[in-house]
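WP5 quarterly update. Target: Rubredoxin. Source organism: Faecalicatena faecalis. Length: 210 aa.
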Amino acid sequence: MRYICQICGYVYDDEKEKVPFEQLPADWKCPLCGAVKSDFKPEVPKTEVKPVSVNTEAADLKKLSAGQLAAVCSNLARGCEKQYKSEEAGLFNELAAYFTSITQAVNDATVENVAKLLQEDIDKYPTVRAVADQNKDRGAARICVWGEKVTRMLSSLVNRYLNEGEAMLADTDIWVCTVCGFVYIGETPPELCPVCKVPPYKFEKIEGRA
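Structure tokens (predicted):
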């Protein structure tokens, strides 16, 4: 039996490993991305992509909040930076700063609510990915792959925090990939980002935690 990490794609093959997956301890973690054992699922055969019907009428479109627009503009700025378009990046950063300044405080920003919202995002990815594959949009498909992996890791970390509390963050550091947003907990960043494969110097250490 082969078990696949739902975050980075690492494969644990019972036939090649000394210990069967089911016999691994409960606190075992993915050697590549640090995901917990429960983030692994048995490998299943790939199925043919079925056509997906998507309603694109304006009435179904959702108006983005100021905070969401800030995140979009910030991501667009990073994209421009990677293409060495400094002027465009600066403009998007200005927009991101503006939308951030008018973003209203979130009153129910509990860890439990964050976990719920992350799971809602994860549930949407199969449909979005199916639409991308159906239209042979490689760029959108790649975004879906990266986005789902990063979201799954965030969900995994949040659920770990709900179970372990502050002990989860004791004597360790938090690193964020500046390319794809992948979050890694450890003394040093991974040798390669499990999602986008960039080297460790692309990771930023999150400072200022109490």
